[in-house]
């Protein structure tokens, strides 16, 4: 396929960002490539230059969300001068702000996209599964830092605690979405940290 005029990375990014919002707001099955063209303002030839079909666009949307979350998590892991609970609260505040800005559509983008993705979108589903598999060791490192700093009691098993935290966080995101109450996310994390002290 020849490269159309204006087929820059900026146009690709714009299409992905718009699709990321549309897929959460309307559901993957209900968003057409034509709608992504219309809302993004990126030409059809440019979008199809970057993405052969909607499944490829979905994979790019999943990678978009993964990059957003992982950059925040890596930043938190590196900020060892800050308390662990303080860093966890910063991450949750970022999640809550994102949910509020999306008007509670797709409180957890990964679960929403996984549930809405068709069975044949195996690359996107596998990427989401991998994200959650990699998330637990990142949280484990953070909790281990909390033990080393004396914020959490010695003797806790950081790996098991990390798996429990991720499960509790996902549950609190779903409950926050169904009740439209972001306080549930913070309350869940506070209770979790109290159990580790």
Brief write-up:
The chain has 197 residues and is mainly α. It folds into 2 domains: 1-52, Homeodomain-like (Arc Repressor Mutant, subunit A, Orthogonal Bundle), CATH 1.10.10; 56-196, Tetracycline Repressor, domain 2. The chain is 75% helix and 0% strand.
Task: Write up what this structure looks like.
- With 197 residues, the protein is mostly helical.
- It has two domains: 1-52, Orthogonal Bundle (Arc Repressor Mutant, subunit A), CATH 1.10.10; 56-196, Tetracycline Repressor, domain 2 (Orthogonal Bundle), CATH 1.10.357.10.
- Helix content is 75%, strand content 0%.
- It contains nine helices and no strands.
- It has helices at 9-26, 33-40, 44-50, 54-78, 84-101, 109-116, 122-148, 158-179, 183-196.
- The protein is elongated, with a radius of gyration of 19 Å.
- The N and C termini lie far apart (59 Å).
- The relative contact order is 0.11.
- The mean pLDDT is 91.
């Amino acid at each position: 396929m020849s490269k159309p005029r204006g087929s820059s990375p900026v146009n690709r990014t714009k299409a992905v960002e718009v699709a990321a919002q549309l897929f959460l707001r309307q559901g993957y099955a209900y968003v057409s490539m034509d709608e992504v063209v219309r809302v993004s303002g990126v030409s059809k030839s440019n979008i199809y230059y970057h993405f052969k079909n909607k499944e490829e666009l979905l994979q790019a949307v999943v990678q978009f969300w993964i990059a957003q979350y992982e950059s925040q998590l890596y930043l938190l892991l590196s900020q060892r001068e800050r308390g662990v609970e303080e860093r966890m609260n910063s991450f949750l505040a970022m999640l809550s702000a994102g949910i509020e800005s999306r008007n509670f559509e797709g409180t957890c983008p990964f679960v929403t996209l996984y549930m809405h993705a068709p069975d044949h979108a195996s690359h996107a589903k596998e990427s989401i599964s991998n994200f959650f598999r990699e998330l637990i060791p990142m949280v484990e490192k953070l909790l281990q830092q909390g033990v080393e700093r004396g914020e959490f009691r010695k003797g806790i098993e950081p790996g098991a605690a990390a798996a429990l935290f991720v499960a509790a966080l996902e549950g609190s995101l779903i409950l926050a979405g169904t009740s439209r109450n972001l306080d549930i996310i913070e309350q869940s994390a506070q209770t979790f940290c109290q159990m580790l002290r």
